[in-house]
Amino acid sequence: MAFYTHPCPHRKHMNSVYVALAVVAALFALCPQVEGAPFPPPQFRNCRSLDGCCPPVNRKPPVPFQLPTNLPWRTRRAAQLVDAAYIAKYHRAYGLMRALPNSDPRSLYAQARMHCAYCGGAFYFPNSAYPLEIHDGWFFFPWHRMFLYFHERILASLIGDPTFTLPFWNWDNQSPIAPLGNLVPRYMSEAYWNRRPNPLYNRNRNRCALPPFLIDLNSGVGCVRMSSARSILTENNRLMYTQMVSGATTPSLFHGSTYRFRWMGGMGGGTLEGAPHGTVHIFTGNPYAKNPYDDMGNLNVAALDPLFYAHHANIDRLWEVWKGMGGRRRDLTDPDYLRSQFIFYDENKRLVSVSVRQVLSLRNLRYGYQRVANPWMNPRAFGMGVMSSDDMDMSGASMEAAKCSSLQYSDVSALVKASPLLENSGNVLSIEPLTFRVRRLDPTGSWQEILVIENIAIDWTQTAKINAFLFHPSASGSSIDCMEFFSTFAHIPEAHHRKKKGYTRSWKLGLTEKLVQLGLSQVSHAVITLVQVGSDQQIKFGSARILLED
Ligand code: C2O
Question: What positions does the domain Tyrosinase copper-binding occupy (predicted)?
Answer without folding.
Answer: 135-152, 305-316
